[in-house]
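Good morning,

Attaching, inline, the backbone tokens for the sequence recovery test we're adding to the shared suite. The designed sequence is right after.
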């Protein structure tokens, strides 16, 4: 029997230049491609930040055509059984340029039924007010970097699912590029992370690999945090579940 794992939603919120793309998204995309092959990732990328990965991975249909693009990709929310793309990783880069609070009809399945669609979803935006709060509320993981929006934490605290984490005002957002507050929502845990530690985002990549192993039901020992992580992960996520 094929092992089913939970599909993840990750939301990254930070100002331009904070390190979203090179510090977080690119390492995750690179690892996903290595583990699952060239057809395992789609990136909606208005700024062409990932153009080096080729037109199959990096796509931009043009202004005003993104709703049609996501309908085609997901078969209007019906997923792979109806001819939609997947399973795989869908990255919504600069999502606040096309996914707004008033435009969710074609997009809501990404956070309401991403497991049915077979999609892990990573969405990045400049500020929390820029994308639908329903998507932020559905995320299992948030990465919060420096913000140009002074009321970002107040906004997050008003989302019921996040209120227990932010309502007391005990946490401050990072003020330096490359530094992020990583929030595990369901576990109600927060970590300060330097995504450029060691110059190659090694700390983030290692954490992501261990989490993929845990999601796949692989026992993870303390020793797994060393050089054997690559080999163990390769054994477990080469074959993605449908």
């Amino acid at each position: 029997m094929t092992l089913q794992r939970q599909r993840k939603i990750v939301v990254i919120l930070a100002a331009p230049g904070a390190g979203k793309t090179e510090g977080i998204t690119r390492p995750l995309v690179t690892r996903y491609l290595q583990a699952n092959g060239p057809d395992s990732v789609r990136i909606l990328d208005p700024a062409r930040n990932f153009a080096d990965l080729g037109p199959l991975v990096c796509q931009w249909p043009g202004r005003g055509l993104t709703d049609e693009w996501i309908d085609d990709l997901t078969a209007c929310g019906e997923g792979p059984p109806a001819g939609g793309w997947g399973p795989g990783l869908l990255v919504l880069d600069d999502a606040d340029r096309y996914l707004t609070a008033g435009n969710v009809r074609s997009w809501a399945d990404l956070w309401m039924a991403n497991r049915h669609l077979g999609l892990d979803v990573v969405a990045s935006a400049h500020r929390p007010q820029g994308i639908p709060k329903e998507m932020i509320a559905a995320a299992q993981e948030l990465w919060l970097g420096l913000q140009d929006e002074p009321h970002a934490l107040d906004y997050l605290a008003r989302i019921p699912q996040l209120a227990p984490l932010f309502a007391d005002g005990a946490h401050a957002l990072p003020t330096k590029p490359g530094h992020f507050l990583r929030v595990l929502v369901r576990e109600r845990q927060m970590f300060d992370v330097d995504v450029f530690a060691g110059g190659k985002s090694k700390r983030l990549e290692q954490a992501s690999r261990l989490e993929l192993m845990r999601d796949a039901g692989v026992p993870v020992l303390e020793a797994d945090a060393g050089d054997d992580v690559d080999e163990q992960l390769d054994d477990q996520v080469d074959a993605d579940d449908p």
